[in-house]
Amino acid sequence: MVRNLLPAAMVGAMALATAPLAAESEASDAALAHVALNVADIGRSEEYYGAVLGFTRIWQYPPDSETPIEIGLAAPGGGAGLVLARLNDEPLPEGKGRYGRVIVNTANAEALAARAEAAGSKPRFVTIPGDNPPTIVFFRDPDGYEIELYEAPTQE
To answer: What average pLDDT does the segment 20-26 reach?
Structure first.
C-alpha cells in the first residue's frame, strides 16, 4: 500500500469540514440515517460490504422478494446505515463514483484496508503531517464508489 502526502491546503479544508459549526442559533436534531448507492449487483455489493466492513443486512424491499431492489445494511459500530439499490437493468452512469464517497469511522483503518485489499480493492493511505495525525485510507468498492476510512488520532 502506497502512502501519499496530502497538501497543506487539503489538511486545512479537512479541519474546517470536520470542525463543529460555530454560533449555531438553533440546535439541530438532524442525524445521518443512511447513505444510498445504486449498484450493479446487490448480492456482490452486500458480500463486499460484509466482508470488508462487517456490515449486515437488516431490511430489504420488497420485504418478501427473492430479488429485492433495495437492501439496508447496518454497520457493526452503529451510526448511519447503507442502502444498496438496483432499480433497473440499465447500465450505471459513467463516473458515478465522482460525486461522493462513503466515510467510515474506525478504530483500526489498517485492518480494514487489508480486508479491502483482500477483496480486490487498492487502498491508498494518505499521510497528514504532524505529531499525531489521523489515519486516512481511500479505496473503491466493486461499483467504483469511493470509501474513506477515518481513524482519529490517538488520545494522548
So the answer is: 51
The cell for 94 is 459513467
d(CA 37, CA 86): 9
DSSP E strands, the chain: 2-5, 34-38, 56-61, 70-74, 81-85, 101-105, 124-127, 135-140, 146-151
**pLDDT (0 to 100) of residue 15:** 41
In this prediction the pTM is: 0.65
Alpha-carbon span 82 to 102, nearest angstrom: 9
Whose CA is closest to 40, among 75, 81, 73, 88? 88
Residue 19 grid cell: 470542525
Mean pLDDT, all residues of the chain = 79
User: How far is Cα 98 from Cα 110, in angstroms, rounded to an integer?
Assistant: 24
As a whole number of angstroms, the distance between CA 75 and CA 148 comes to 14
Distance of CA 4 to CAs 18, 56, 126, 133, Å?
Answer: 21, 32, 5, 14
Higher-confidence position of 114 and 101: 114
Cα separation, 101 vs 142, whole angstroms: 13
